[in-house]
Structures are given as C-alpha cells and as structure tokens.
Amino acid sequence: MHIALITGQNTCELKTNADCKLQTEDGEQILKKGKYFVHIVDGKLAFDKKMVLSSKVVLINDDEKKPLGVNHREYKGNLRISVDDGNILVVNDVPLETYLESVLPTKTMPIWPDEAIKAQAVAARSYALHSKTVSKGKYDLKALDQEVPYLGTGKDIERDAITKLIKATAGEYLVSANGKPVYALTTSSTGGRTEGMQGYSYLQSVQDFDEDSPDNKWEKRVSPFLLHNYVERSGHEIGKMTSIFLSPMGDKADDRTESGRVKYMIISGDKGTVKLTGQEIADILNLPSTLFDVKTGVPVPEKIELPIANVYGYEIGKKEMSIKINESDKPIWSDLKRAYHIVGEDKDEQLVFKGKARGNGIGLSSWGARGMANSDEKITYRDILNHYYPGTKLNYNI
Question: What pLDDT does residue 137 have?
C-alpha cells in the first residue's frame, strides 16, 4: 500500500532510528541516525542546511524494530519523499497486512467476538484494495482517510489480539459481481437499519443488530446562535433566525432518506432561507450522525424558585419546587405542523437534537457485527459479511 502521510506542506520533520539507505536520482548513500528538518531549496529536497538532494528520494528501512519517523509518528516500511507542486509529499510504502495491523484497532476492540473482528478485517482489506484499484495518483490513500485512519506503528496503536485475527483472514477480501474489490464502507452503529448507497448494489439498506451501542440514543443541546453564525459565515444572509423545517424522524418525507437520516434541513430568517445538508449540520454541531430530530424552545427547568410572602404580602423567603410539564401543556404551534419549529428570541433558548447511531450508517456496522456474533455462536464472519454486503463473494488471492 502507498499511504500519503504528508501532502500540501512545505516542511516536515524526519527521524531515523538507525542508519538507513537513501536513494536519490544520483545514486545511493547512507542517511545517518538522527533528526532532519526536511524543506525545499530551489525545487530540491534539503535534509539540513548543507544536504541538498534531488526532487525525490526513497528511504529504505530493513529493520522493522527501528521504524522511520515523520512528524512525531513512526512507520514501518519505506518512505518516498518528493517535491509535488511546490510542496512536500511523503508516502509510506507498507505491506497491506502491516497496514491493517495499524488501522483495525481504531475500528474495533480486542474484547469483541472474534468473528466480528474478522469481518472488519476483511472489510478494511477490501476497502484498501478498492482504493488501490481506483487510485490514479501518486498514492492509494491518505493517512487521514475517514474510513481507515492510519496512525503508524507503536505500542499504543497495534493490538496483538487484533493482529492475530487479521492473520487468520490473511489475503481474504470481498469482490463484487465484476470480480473487483468492493467499496466496503463501514460505520459504528446505525440505530437499527443501515443506509443504502446509490451506484453500489452491495451497499443496501439492511437490518442492523446494534441495540447495545452506547449511541443507540443520544441528545445534544446547542445555542441557536452557533448555527446562525455558521450560516452567516457561509455567505447566507438570512437575518434573524425565525424557524427550522425538518420532518420528524418517523415520517417518510423528502428531507429524509429511506432509513430516516436527514437529507437536508431548512433554516429561515427574516431576510432569507438556506438549505443545509444533514451532514453539514452534523459537522457544524459535532453530532454523532445524521439520524436525528430537532426541537426548539426554552428548555424547561427541573426546579423553580418561588417567593414566600407573609399575611401582609411581604416576601419573607423563597422555596424551590420541582416542575413537571404534561404533554397537554406543550405549545399549541407544535401540533399544527410537526416539521415546523419556531426559533424565538429568548437568550436561554436551545436547539435540542435527539438522535441515534454514530457514523455514516453505510455498510458493515461495528456494533451490529458484534450483535450478530453474540446472538448465535454458529454465526461466522462470512455470515456477517454476507448480511452487510449482499451479493459479494470472498476472494482468497491478492
């Protein structure tokens, strides 16, 4: 695999934990153990003030126990460093299985069922091979790819128990009907049903088994000003925010997907209206997923402080009383149109987002795979993969 560690930067720090081979356009030399500040001088790479080399070099490391370091992270395999459009491009060339040993611990936990972890290993391998197949650039994936974040090597990254299960599925990956590696997206949890994706027959909406997910229900309260400020900064002058339009989660509506996720939300003000996608809202407010409802209004306090007066009407103290609002006490407007939410002027007002799931909701669900494996000891990782990627087949050769 060819993983881009650094793109679009004009400097980086390189660390060699042992002497290593350095191949340049002019030949090969030894790069001594140490730290180097890599930058560009007249279109060429410079490893210090005196060592000005060619526009591309390769660092070859034959000792996995002494990995190469880039910007305070260490990586097994070799490094290719080049000048790319006036910036530095650092690519880590690393075996696929070694790459998975770093990637998979970010997506699962060693204490989970073996079959669930095996399924995730195959999915991650399939995703990586798909990326390699469709890539036409100087690397296959970026280290910060959202699906498979690559953190390099270290005792806080790899997990022996997970590495063992990666090796148990070594070389196995999913192929579609055309025999090519599948775009095996994954998610943390889905709230009961995965989301389909157009253009990929194997990414269908299927039942999930993620009832035990800690994100099966979540709530977040934010100030309307946070959302309003983002809208204004994005160049949409809506004026004073007055309302939000979003259909309730259980309704089949144009602003929601088949599984209930938010396609878009309409925000109105006294000067205009803007439509934001569900993912934009989730990103702005740091919501776990796009499967959510929104409520507006001043939050009801749990207690209220009331004055105590004497027989002459003078206040002589205060008393706290708990508050409980019945359903019948809700504002009348909330029953007029369930998708229309008024935003008022009260400084204490909050937007209340209640939702389910974490992640994009597409493909194999980590918590769902765990749920399937725990439900029946006869279920294998192949069963899990067949459920979340219907119509695919296992291939055993890379």
Answer: 87
